[in-house]
Automatic annotation (TrEMBL):
Protein name, per record: Phytocyanin domain-containing protein
Signal sequence annotation: 1-24
MF term (GO), any: electron transfer activity
PANTHER family: BLUE COPPER PROTEIN (PTHR33021), OS07G0570600 PROTEIN (PTHR33021:SF339)
Highest taxon in the source lineage: Eukaryota
Every Phytocyanin domain range: 25-126
One GO CC annotation: plasma membrane
SUPFAM superfamilies listed in its UniProt record: Cupredoxins (SSF49503)
C-alpha cells in the first residue's frame, strides 16, 4: 500500500512540475511605471532583472493616446526604425505570450519615444535542464531567431502581473516540496 501511495505522490509531483512550465509568469513591462517615457524607466535594466520563459506573458500597460507597442527586428530595434514592424499593438493593455526562444524586440513608434529609451529586448533563453520539457514531433518549437513573432495581443487586464506569476510559481514549488516530503515519510 505504501508503494502505491508513494507512486501516486511521485506522479503528482511530475504533473505539477509540468504544469509550472505550461502556466508561465506574467511580466508587466516597466513594473509599476508601465510602458512610458515619463520617469526615466530603464527598460534594458528592467529586462536584465527578469528570467523569461516560454509561456510567459509580457504585458504592456500604457496610455494609448500617447504610446503604442511595435515588435520589430533587431536592426530596426537598434536604429528605432518603425517602417516595417513584425506586429503592432495599441490597446493600452497589450498581453503578448512568448511562444518561442530568442530575442523579442519591442519599441514605441511615437516619434522620439524609442530614441528616448522606450524600447525593450525580451530574451528567452533555452533552459539546459534534464527536467525541462522537450518539444514533441507533433508540435515543434520554432528555431530561435533575432526577430521571432509573437501571438496577437489580448484584452486581458493585469493589475499585479509580476506578483501573480511569482505567487503561482511559489505555490507550485511549495506543493511539490510537501509531496516530496510526504513520499519520503511514507516510504520509510
Amino acid at each position: 500500500m505504501k508503494k502505491a501511495v508513494a507512486a501516486l505522490f511521485m506522479s503528482m509531483v511530475v504533473c505539477l512540475s509540468l504544469m509550472e512550465t505550461v502556466i508561465g509568469a506574467l511580466h508587466k513591462v516597466g513594473d509599476s511605471a508601465g510602458w512610458t517615457t515619463i520617469g526615466n524607466v530603464d527598460y534594458k535594466q528592467w529586462a536584465a532583472t527578469k528570467t523569461f520563459k516560454l509561456g510567459d506573458t509580457i504585458v504592456f500597460s500604457y496610455n494609448k493616446q500617447f504610446h503604442n507597442v511595435m515588435q520589430v527586428t533587431h536592426a530596426d530595434y537598434r536604429s528605432c526604425n518603425v517602417s516595417a514592424p513584425i506586429s503592432t499593438h495599441s490597446t493600452g493593455n497589450d498581453s503578448i505570450t512568448i511562444t518561442n526562444y530568442g530575442h523579442h524586440f519591442y519599441l514605441c513608434a511615437v516619434p522620439g519615444h524609442c530614441q528616448a529609451g522606450q524600447k525593450v529586448d525580451i530574451n528567452v533563453q533555452r533552459v539546459s535542464s534534464t527536467l525541462a520539457p522537450t518539444p514533441s514531433a507533433a508540435n515543434p518549437l520554432p528555431s530561435p531567431s533575432m526577430s521571432s513573432p509573437s501571438l496577437p495581443p489580448t484584452s486581458t487586464t493585469v493589475n499585479t502581473a509580476n506578483s501573480v506569476g511569482k505567487a503561482a510559481s511559489s505555490t507550485l514549488s511549495l506543493i511539490k516540496l510537501g509531496m516530496v516530503i510526504a513520499v519520503f515519510v511514507l516510504s520509510v
